[in-house]
Structures are given as C-alpha cells and as structure tokens.
Design brief:
This protein is an all-beta fold. Helix content is about 0%, strand content about 45%. The strands form two sheets. Strands 1-2-5-10-7-8 form a six-stranded antiparallel beta sheet, with no helix packed on it. It has a five-stranded antiparallel beta sheet with strand order 3-4-11-6-9, with no helix packed on it. The radius of gyration is 16 Å and the shape is globular.
Length: about 190
Amino acid sequence: MRCLAPASSALTNFSIGTTYNDQIGVESFANAYPGSLTLIPSGDTVRVSGTVNTYSSFDVGFAACIDASTFAGLAFELGGSVGPTGTLTFVVTTRENSPEPPFTATGTCVPQDPTNPFADCHSAYTQLPVLPAPSSATVRFDDFRGGMPAPGVDSAQILSLGFSFSWSSTAQPYDVDLTLGNVTLIH
C-alpha cells in the first residue's frame, strides 16, 4: 500500500466541519469515543466535551495512509479542561505499529499472540500538558516513544492522530471541555 503525500501542511479545517479533504492526498475526519464525548466544530477549532468514565479519546483519522516524511512534526492549538492530570496522551498510529488484518485494515505488524494483538503492536506516544486557555503546541515526530515493534513514529505511514484522556479502573468520572484546532505538519 502506497501512502499519500499531503498537498499542503494542513491536516484539518474545522471551519467546514469535522471532515477535511485537500483534494490531493489528505482526507481527514475527527471523532470521539465513547458516546459520552461530543465533537462540535466552530471556526478553526473543534470542541470536545463530556464525561470521562472509561477509556476515552478523540482523534483525527485519515481515509488513506499519509506520507509526511518531508515534515518533522505536528503543530496545533489545544487548551481546556482535561481532568485531574492536566495531560493527554498523544498517539500517532502508523501502519508498522498496527496489527495486520483482520485486526486492523492496513496494519503490517504481525502479533506473536493472535488472541492479544495489541500486546506486540501498539502506537508510539508522548504526554501533552494541556493549559486551560488554547495555546500553540508543537510535537516533533522524534518526541514519540514506546511504540511496538517500532519504538518511534515512521512519518511516511501515518494512519491517525489520537488524544487519550487519563483513566484507570479506580478513577472517578470527570468532565472534560477542550478545543483542538489548526492541526498542521511542520518542517
């Protein structure tokens, strides 16, 4: 599978909704999990709000694999209330760290234990502090760690950008209300 190079550095345009298409290589869509979280686009941002009472996240997924190998990282506007830790786990999902079919549609990682594919195949991540007011954030692809089998991010095969809220089985539910905007690639 060949990954597509974007026509520009833009990966989102929330002023037209939660989907975006640069007419060349990027078709993105924002979504949230579970249903207790809502996404509302407004201007150049999308507002994510609701209650976290289980594993919860929101992401910008791509209809096709994105080849961002000519870029060094990502920039975006982020701010709001994200719960007691004040951080999000930021994940870049790539083909090489996603389990092969039938577990995912386009992954190439072969799990040692097919009954637990994500033990051997998982995305690289970094922790993002989130300020109450929206502010600029820049994350270089070299900042990501902990992926498997590849520990970092191969920017030539990006499938999605995910933002996970903190949660554990002993946590108390909490409300979140934040905005994400102007997701772009940087040199």
